[in-house]
Design a protein that fits this description.
By secondary structure, this protein is an alpha/beta fold. The chain has 13 helices and 16 strands. A hairpin with a 2-residue loop joins strand 15 and strand 16. The longest helix has 17 residues.
């Protein structure tokens, strides 16, 4: 993969606040499908501001980790944060770029977006294969008066190593002892039932095509594909709708410094309005990159996104990182990402 050496045009600031790269024409990244819609919007804005392009391969968190380990990209992206010891062993720096929510989506005749209610036990039992029909008494009890068809439930899940799956299964493991014991949590698990789709895109496509389907996707994919999402019962016992407000409520009390690499998981958080399957998407770069210019260009892209991308994020129901956390992240860049012993990005 071709890379270009970058030198900074000292003092030349773009109107949007990004520093123009002299030689780096393309930043190469790969990984999580969860943040792809907002990365695409940020990339478009950044290219207009600087002329620098972002080539981002939406291949799943597992693929992103493999590619950054293989040093075939300038940054990797994962929704399942890597553990501190692995980051240290490989020599990676990890930081969160954006937050959002994973939502159950359904294709059931007569069921409109946001109308179907699911609680923790029922959602887990559907994915365990214990509830197999849409007019099951347990679903009906949560939705009195709703005309639920006598139709088999077609379960759709991810086929690839996925941070979205890691969030979804982490949630199920927290709310269902049986799921925790028999399936567990992770980017890839041994699913009891279901048809596998590749990426959020693949799951959304299958749910849209299959009558009676249920799947899980990042919220932007539900909106883009006009899929009916479900309400979920949260830890406080309230049924909530997925949107920027409920995602932000789940993240409100996050202690980002409590885990190495800011690796906080935001599923099943307390809060009256908290969406129960909320998470961050993380970026991975080398502490001592072989291509300093390319890594610096990647950091400049995310610096631009933090400074200028909040409205785009909110418009798509993502949650921008709080300003206080961004300052911590920028300090991490300055302290830990070094090019020939010099900080790749100043504080």
């Amino acid at each position: 993969m071709m890379r270009f050496r970058m030198t900074l045009l000292a003092g030349a600031m773009m109107a949007a606040g990004a520093v123009q790269a002299a030689d780096v024409a393309t930043i190469n990244g790969a990984g999580a499908t969860f943040p792809y819609p907002i990365y695409a919007k940020w990339a478009e804005a950044y290219n207009k501001a600087t002329g620098v392009k972002l080539n981002y391969q939406s291949i799943g968190s597992g693929g992103g980790i493999k590619q950054i380990k293989a040093k075939t990209v300038d940054f990797g992206a994962t929704d399942d944060p890597m553990k501190g010891e692995e980051l240290e062993d490989i020599g990676l720096v990890q930081f969160p770029a954006i937050m959002g929510g994973v939502v159950p989506v359904v294709n059931v005749a007569g069921v409109e977006a946001g109308k179907l209610k699911l609680d923790q036990a029922v959602l887990a039992d559907i994915y365990l294969g214990k509830i197999a029909n849409w007019n099951d008494a347990k679903i009906a009890a949560l939705n009195p008066g709703m005309a639920l068809p006598n139709k088999l439930i077609s379960v759709v899940r991810r086929s690839d190593g996925s941070g979205t799956t890691a969030l979804f299964t982490d949630y199920l493991a927290k709310v269902s002892p049986e799921w925790k014991e028999t399936v567990g949590a992770g980017k890839a698990v041994k699913w009891p039932v279901g048809l596998g789709g590749k990426g959020n895109e693949g799951v959304a496509s299958y749910v849209k095509q299959i009558d009676g389907a249920i799947g899980y996707v990042e919220y932007a994919y539900a909106k883009q594909n006009k899929l009916a999402h479900a309400q979920l019962k949260n830890k406080d016992g309230n049924y909530v709708q997925p949107d920027g407000e409920t995602f932000a409520a789940a993240a409100a009390n996050a202690d980002w410094t409590s885990k190495p690499g800011y690796g906080v998981v935001l599923t099943e958080q307390a809060g009256a309005k908290a969406w129960p399957i909320t998470g961050a998407s993380f970026i991975l770069v080398y502490k001592e990159p072989e291509n300093c210019a390319a890594t610096e260009a990647a950091l400049k892209f995310f610096d631009y996104a933090y400074k200028n991308g909040s409205k785009l994020a909110l418009d798509m129901d993502y949650v921008p990182m709080p300003a206080s956390v961004v300052q911590q992240i920028k300090a991490t860049w300055a302290d830990e990402v070094k090019c020939d012993g010099v900080a790749a990005m100043a504080k």
